Every structure is written in C-alpha cells, then in structure tokens.
C-alpha cells in the first residue's frame, strides 16, 4: 500500500484547484493541509528557509507548496505524506509541472531507516503536525538521514507544541537556532554535528497496541498504532456505535474514516457480504488492512481497504 503512484496522471480529489503563492504554483483541495495562503506556519517556512542546493527531504509536505518552492533550488527532492489527499495534491502538481530535478512523491508517514541511505540529505524540512509519538519519530528519522552538518528545519504554531519539540530536537542534535518567531509561529534550525546518539525517539512510534472490542456477543482483539485516533484504547464512541449496530446479513457496508478498521470488521462478523473501508491516513490504512487479513476471511465477506477521503 506504500508504493509510489505514477505522477504522470491527474488524481481525483474533492475540490481540487490551482493556487499560486509568491510565484509558486501548486494544487490544493478541500481536505488538504499546508496551504501557505491559509497556514501561517507554512508561509513562514516558505518565506524564510528555501534550500538553495543539495538533496532535500520533506516530511509531511502538505499540499505541495513547500515542495514547489524547492523545485528550482535543490538537486533532488523526496516528499513524504501520511495524508492521501496531500499526496494526491502534490502528484497533480508534479503532473502539470516540468520539474528540473528528480522528485519522489511517496504516500507514507516516515521513511524506514535504510542503512544504505544513511546520511543522504542536506536538508530535512518539517511542518509539524499533531501527535507526540510521530513528532519524536520524525526527529530520529531526520537525524539518521541527514549528512554531517546537514540541517533540520522545523516550523509550527505554538499551540501545536513547537517549543517543546525544539527542546527534544536540541537533545538529539545537541544544538539549535531559532530563526524566526512570527504570528505565534516558530521556525527553528538544528545542525547534525554528531554521527551517532544514544537518544532514540522511534520506539514509541513503532509500537503496536492490542485492544479488544465486544458487542452483540462477538469479541475480538485488534491492533492499533500511533498516528491513528485513540491508538492506546478502544474509543468510547467507537464502542457505543458498535453496540448500536444492526444485523448486517447480506448487506454491503462502507466504513468512512475507518481508522484501525474495527467497525468494518465487526460489520463483517455481523453478516455483511462486502465491506469497503476508507481512510485518508496511510498508517490507518496499513493497520486496517492488517486487521482485516487477520480477522475476516474473504470467503465470508469481500473486503477492501482504500486510501481516500471520499468515495467515488
């Protein structure tokens, strides 16, 4: 589910429009993030810190405006998005642009630590998003992939926890420099000055949690992971909804914003002949697919887990 999709075709996204910011052309949609016209932190990052050369890794690239700002300056660009909608917006931007450099647009939250690619990038750019475990993991990934004296640039709103993240990044990198503070947003730079460290923020993000759901005399265990809503417990709202489920015998079910897939799995166990589960989060899709494979047989119910925020 994490293979790169071809960038030579347009991807259907709800409300897709072309935008321009400071001479940067990009696409946005109704559900995307990172639009500098609406996000002051992204606007600050674009204004103050465009890389002028080298290889650049963008974590959580949003709709693609930040990547668009790098295309004419760096030598190689790799972009990761946990949001399928953001991934599609940037894919559309790439499809209609004539990029002068090699670009990888990858629908996954974080790259795995590949020893063959350690110390690859000159810059890592990160417009932070909510989720402590994810933010910490992104710091470790950035440190691993940066070249010696390579730079991590963080930007975010104060209410998103940027100041506490700066403290954790300083512990990992051993240094920091606050480049700009404006409109309740902060921009900070960290330089990789050591080749290894005892600080490891990845463990919590790589953890998998096992929970149980019981409803209608049916009980089963499922897994959830950081990056998915209520990853450390079965959400009370999910439990309440599960208890109200009818008999789904011979019915087809669409599970929107499926998360770990637990409600779609319960529908299958209550007799549904087909379940389609959708989510915009890559981690959720991977986890839901794993849970369906473990808990639902295709002979009893035809199921499908898809990246999407809409159903076409």
Helix and strand composition category: alpha/beta
Query: How would you spell out the order of helices and strands?
Result: EEHEHEHEEHEHEEHEEHEHEHE
Quaternary structure state of the chains depicted: single chain
**Describe the biggest sheet?**
7 strands, mixed
For the secondary structure, the number of strands is: 14
Total helical segments? 9
What is the average per-residue confidence, as pLDDT, rounded to a whole number?
A: 86
Gross geometry? globular
Q: CA-to-CA gap between the ends?
A: 19 Å
Query: Beta-strand percentage?
Result: 25-35%
Question: Uncertain segments of ≥5 residues (pLDDT<50)?
Answer: 1-9
Structural account:
Helices cover 28% and strands 28% of the residues. It has helices at 40-48, 65-70, 84-95, 132-145, 162-173, 202-206, 236-243, 262-269, 282-295, and strands at residues 17-21, 24-28, 55-59, 76-80, 103-106, 121-127, 146-157, 177-182, 185-191, 209-215, 218-224, 252-255, 274-279, 302-307. The protein is an alpha/beta fold. A seven-stranded mixed beta sheet has the order 5-4-3-6-7-9-8, with helices on both faces.
